[in-house]
User: Which sequence fits this backbone?
């Protein structure tokens, strides 16, 4: 049995300091049970916890560690930068270097603004969309998560096209009165919304690769439909690529599907896992941001030199020839071997994937909408999670979250993880 005594003790202490003992809800292991593991070290594709247990890590800090933990090039660049100071609240050449690295290799954007998180990126970009269009309403989709922005912490109402209801205490209903929540993959709902709120919608925001509530892969046709209707109605198409950006390719989902969004948001992958985010668009839109334009947004730590340095090191590696093809091949082989075993045993199980992102689903049906996820399947995930931990495999502690493959995942580690998954599935379905 897995020794978790130190993690359990640390968690008891943490509960004295933090709500629920954690600084982000999903870390609490609430949906899988037990105390969360307190991590002491990450190296390559491995994590080591406070009790000395080592795990093959498929969480990768929820995605941004595409090179794995403590990549030598990233660590070296960070150390070099820290030695010169960690924060100035003033411009540095590192901001220029990272921006040039991104913009020179991403044809879908002209200008970028660095912020401190994915949440801040989406919040700022929503404000920009409203400022640019002079409109107030925002369309989002059930099953897509865009950070803990008040106006986007909403759930659908009772109709096909409804104004959202706040889904968190502390969010006034008035704050979400301009947010329209639609089901994914429903063209008629989008058409009805733009007709009902003619000339009132500033943007349609979605994860083009919805990966915060399962992996709800959409047909390119639906994404193209959104592009066309936004162009027709003067609405900005906003791709939230906090997870998919620089993950499914350097140009993210925009490049993967070859669709031009009007606005984009990125997350910590652009900073090698450091606290950072960004929003970007064509120059005409970005020039509305202060100090050049009337849309205000600021941040003392925006463009932090340490985060910029880590980003330069990481994204430079991502630009190596064949980098994304290699990651996609690893992911395809990994998921295919587990799937083949599940199919042979007749298990109701599937592992949809795109690029180096995968999801664990306890059905063979293709899931495109959040409402299609069977909540009772999370009981199976709870068992799977515990069995994988006992076999030295770490995945995110929620069945609604996706997993990630990094460059650091070796064939040896992946083969060991495949065997662990197969054994764990036998327990789940035994």
Assistant:
């Amino acid at each position: 049995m897995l020794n978790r005594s130190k993690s359990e003790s640390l968690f008891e202490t943490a509960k004295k300091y933090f709500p629920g003992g954690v600084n982000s809800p999903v870390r609490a292991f609430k949906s899988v049970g037990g105390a969360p593991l307190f991590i002491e070290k990450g190296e390559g594709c491995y994590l080591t916890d406070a009790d000395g247990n080592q795990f093959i890590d498929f969480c990768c800090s929820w995605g941004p560690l595409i090179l794995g933990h403590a990549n030598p090039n990233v660590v070296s660049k960070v150390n070099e930068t820290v030695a010169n100071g960690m924060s100035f609240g003033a411009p540095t050449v590192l901001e220029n270097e990272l921006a040039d690295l991104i913009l020179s290799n991403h044809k879908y954007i002209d200008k970028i603004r660095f912020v401190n998180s994915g949440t801040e990126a989406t919040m700022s970009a929503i404000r920009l969309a409203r400022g640019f269009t002079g409109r107030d309403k925002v369309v989002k989709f059930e099953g897509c998560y865009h950070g803990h922005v008040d106006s986007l912490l909403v759930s659908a109402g009772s109709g096909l096209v409804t104004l959202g209801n706040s889904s968190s205490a502390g969010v006034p209903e008035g704050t979400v009165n301009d947010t329209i929540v639609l089901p994914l993959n429903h063209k008629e709902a989008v058409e009805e919304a733009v007709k009902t709120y003619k000339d009132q919608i500033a943007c349609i925001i979605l994860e083009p690769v919805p990966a915060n509530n399962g992996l709800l892969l959409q047909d390119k046709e639906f994404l193209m439909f959104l592009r066309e209707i936004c162009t027709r109605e003067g609405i900005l198409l906003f791709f939230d690529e906090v997870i998919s950006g620089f993950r499914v390719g350097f140009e993210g989902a925009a490049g993967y599907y070859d669709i031009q969004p009007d606005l984009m948001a990125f997350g910590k992958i652009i900073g090698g896992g450091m606290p950072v985010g960004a929003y970007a668009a064509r120059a005409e839109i970005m020039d509305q941001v202060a100090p050049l334009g009337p849309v205000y947004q600021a941040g003392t730590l925006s463009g932090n030199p340490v985060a910029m340095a880590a980003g330069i090191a990481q994204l430079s590696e991502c630009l190596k020839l064949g980098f994304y093809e290699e990651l996609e091949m690893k992911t395809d082989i990994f998921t295919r071997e587990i799937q083949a075993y599940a199919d042979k045993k007749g298990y109701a199980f599937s592992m949809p994937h795109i690029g180096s992102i995968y999801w664990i689903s306890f059905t063979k049906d293709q899931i495109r909408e959040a409402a299609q996820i069977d909540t009772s399947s999370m009981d199976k995930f709870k068992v799977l999670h515990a069995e994988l931990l006992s076999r030295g495999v770490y995945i995110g502690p929620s069945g609604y979250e996706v997993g990630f493959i990094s460059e650091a995942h070796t064939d040896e580690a992946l083969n060991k993880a495949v065997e662990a998954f197969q054994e764990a599935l036998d327990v789940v379905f035994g």
Notes: The chain has a mean pLDDT of 95.
